[in-house]
Amino acid sequence: MSYPPGNGEISNAGRGSRPGLFEEVRRRLRLKHYSLRTEKAYLGWVRRFVAANGRRHPRELGVVEVEHFLSGLAMLGQVASSTQNQALSALLFLYREVLGTELPWLENVVRAKRPQRLPTVLSAPEVARLLAHMQGRTWLLASLLYGTGMRLMEGLRLRVKDVDFMRQEILVRDGKGGKDRRTVLPRSLAEPLQRELERVRLLHEQDLSAGAGRVWLPHALARKYPQAASDLGWQYLFPADRRSRDPRTGAQGRHHIDDAVLARALKRARAHAGIAKPVSAHTLRHSFATHLLEAGYDIRTVQELLGHKDLSTTQIYTHVLGRGASAVRSPLDL
Predict the structure, then answer these.
(1) DSSP per residue over 116-169, as a string?
(2) Reading across the β-sheet that carries 163-164, which strands appear in turn?
(3) Assigned domain for 20 exists
(4) Do 164 and 274 lie in a common domain?
(5) Which intervals hold domain Tyr recombinase (predicted)?
(6) Which letter does DSSP use for residue 8 in this model?
(7) Is residue 288 part of a domain?
(8) Do 147 and 268 belong together in one domain?
(9) Contacts 24+ apart (CB under 8 A), 184-192
(10) Which CATH number is 182's domain given?
(11) Please, what sign has the CA dihedral across residues 203, 207, 208, 210?
(12) 142 and 265 together in one domain
């Protein structure tokens, strides 16, 4: 059983001027302010689901086909549990929000197993070596992720106004679960961040002179505050090198840098630093949490800084510290 991507749109022939299925899914996603990343992922899963069922319209399908599709991902596709959950979320959105149909409880879905793995953590000397082989904006972004514990997209989506030098805090807006939180602003990054903000200010002035300079605003703020999109405070802290057009509005503006830019920089720095462990932006977040616990900070404080809803998620770092089973001395060694 295979699931081809299926790029064609399903038409609504004979249904007047109603939009096609994928067009309607896209419209509903944007109406509810889903990110472009989520939009792309959900549309991809809807296309695969339709293609896997002989390009029949989802109105003609139901819980049996959904269960069969999701189980196939686990058994034949051997996808990770997070991937299967994303596919499930996409199909639930399709039926609930677009087709207005509630799917019964999907009790017969074969669930992909979620592996229990400890996070990869760099030691403090390894972090120092890694950052020593980076420079410019990628160095600043990597340092900020390690120094604050932010997720990659939280760092990329930072706006100028989110950095509070007086309070030495960073406001993380619309984090995982749609929640705002505050995290620490590393003192050692205050001066580099000031220089970066000055660069952003000059770049924004150039954009305004060129008739651009408007940035995407979340949650319909552009309609509520028409001038906010061109305000310096709303500009991204890490803007892209080139202006681009917003696929939602067609307006020309400057988005934040692509996450692949940092991924490539980390890969090069890891090789030059001679670090054997795999390194990603999330590795820096794991290292932040572990090093704070090593320094004696309360686990509740670390939970708040990381934005974890459940303390059990933060407690995984105690195993990395050796405060779990590995902290117990064997009776053979007593």
Answers:
(1) --PPP---HHHHHHHHHT--HHHHHHHHHHHHH---HHHHHT-BGGGEETTTTE
(2) 163-164, 169-172, 181-184
(3) yes
(4) yes
(5) 117-333
(6) P
(7) no
(8) yes
(9) 184/147, 184/148, 184/305, 185/148, 186/143, 186/144, 186/147, 186/148, 188/147, 189/140, 189/143, 189/144, 189/147, 190/165, 192/140, 192/143
(10) 1.10.443
(11) positive
(12) yes
Q: Which residues are catalytic?
A: 151, 176, 282, 285, 308, 317
Residue 256's SS3 state is strand
DSSP label at residue 236:
B
How far is it, in rounded angstroms, from Cα 1 to Cα 13?
29
Number of compact structural domains in the chain: 2
The pTM is what?
0.75
- List the chain pLDDT tens, one digit each, 334 residues: 333 344 444 544 434 445 689 999 999 998 887 888 899 999 999 999 999 999 999 999 988 999 999 989 888 877 888 888 899 999 999 999 999 988 877 777 777 666 667 889 999 999 999 999 999 999 999 999 999 999 999 999 999 999 999 999 999 988 877 789 999 999 999 999 999 999 999 999 999 999 888 898 877 777 788 888 899 999 999 999 999 887 777 777 899 999 999 999 999 999 999 999 999 999 999 999 999 999 999 999 999 999 998 888 888 887 777 655 555 565 656 5
User: CA 60, 66, 68, 73 torsion: positive or negative?
Assistant: positive
* Closest C-alpha among 28, 30, 46, 115 to residue 86: 46
Residues 23 and 128 in one domain: no
Which residue range(s) make up the domain with 177?
124-279
Of 252, 279, 306, the position where a domain reaches its end is 279
Residues 135 and 24 in one domain: no
